[in-house]
Amino acid sequence: MLSTFLTLIKDLDDEHKKCLLWFQNNKGKIINGWPKKIVDKYYLATKAKGIYKPKETKYALSLRSSLKSDYKDILELKENGKFKFKYFQENTDIRKRDFEFTNRAVKECINDVIPVGIFIQISPKPKTSYKIIGTGIVKKWENGFFLINGFDKNGDI
Question: Of the residues 17, 32, 42, 104, which has the maximum number of CB atoms within 10 A of its CB?
Fold first, then answer.
């Protein structure tokens, strides 16, 4: 029987699927520097924005939380690798959420129940490193925050 995670990504294109599998399979690992591109079509993230939405899809692929940010994201780690993550939208004015294409892409993930990859910066430049939190489902948007439930190591919520 497929895990919840594998069931939810089975109909995505192969490259989107491979990227999400990378986040799930590297859950808990620390990477030094920027994540490397693992497929031809998509990067894993962008340095320009915290939310990465590849141009080839309507969905956000990953969410990055940075140490030096105007946004106050909140990560709560649970047992078995599960987590809850409150990720603040792009644009500090919550009334302007839908002005940002990246926020609209996260809303598409909510609507179609498409997982996103999550990683957080744990050390600043010049030796930047990130912790891969894994993948999660964006459950809803509330008061400027996207609320995400993270999959455990087996891909279940």
Answer: 42
Contact between 64 and 50 (Cβ < 8 Å): yes
Distance of CA 46 to the CA centre of its chain: 12
- Do residues 60 and 106 lie in contact, with contact meaning Cβ atoms separated by under 8 Å? yes
**Contact (CB, 8 A) for 129 and 58:** no
Among all chains, which residue has been given the structure tokens 């294109």? 13
pLDDT of the chain, 157 residues: tens digit per residue: 889 999 999 999 999 999 999 999 999 999 999 999 999 989 999 999 999 999 999 999 999 999 988 888 999 999 888 999 999 998 888 888 888 999 999 999 999 999 999 999 999 988 999 999 999 999 999 999 999 999 999 999 8
Judge if the upstream peptide bond of residue 126 is cis by omega within 30 degrees of 0. Answer: yes
| E strand segments, 13-109 | 30-32, 51-52, 62-65, 74-77, 83-88
Q: Give the whole-angstrom CA distance, residue 92 versus residue 40.
A: 33
Q: Where are the alpha helices (DSSP H) in the chain?
A: 4-9, 14-25, 101-112
> Domain residues of the chain, as ranges?
4-150
Strand partners, 141: 146
